[in-house]
Amino acid sequence: MDAESHSWVFDLVATDDVVRHRALNRHRALLAAAAEALTWSNRIWAQAGTPAPTEPHLAAEMDQAQADFRWHREQTILGPITAEADEFLVLFLRWETDYPEEWKAPGSWMWSPWTTKEVILRRLDRGGVPEQIRPPIGDLIVSAVQRPYRCKDWMYAPLVRHVLDTSFAGRIEALRDADDPLVRLRAQFLLHVAEHPENPVRRASWRRWLSSDTGIM
To answer: What is the pTM of this model?
Structure first.
């Protein structure tokens, strides 16, 4: 995967609307072309009655359709994400954080972006957060704590243990004095997670903590 050829996707989070929308249109055009190629391969499948046709002309056409699908899809942010390039994993999460309406719009994805978000967050938890991206991941956690809940946001909580240092802990401690009582509770929960690394964080962990004596202090 050539990271330089994908440098344009960083414009998906540009503050300049013109620059950002140009990148968004490019991303969507590539996905539309990938969708056309997928429709093409499905049509061949229906014609041959199998995804692996034996007739030479259909087999060649299927190879071309599948190659077109892969090429167009891999030119988008999904290419480096699939290759697990760290900076692009952060970019994907930043895009959702900063411009959620553009990120989740139907034209921006062929399938659910929430699944991709889940895969990325789980990967970072299980494999660890590389040192070079710990600061931006910490920023994303702090942003998630302070906003209305979004699908899969709970999966940021396990990452606290991977980015925990004095600076990050101080930022979370400061949120215990936030005006919003929900933000205060979330900050307290994350500190609880940090203090108890032996306890796995599951989807139900937040609710379970809230119902405990610790969560209602």
So the answer is: 0.91
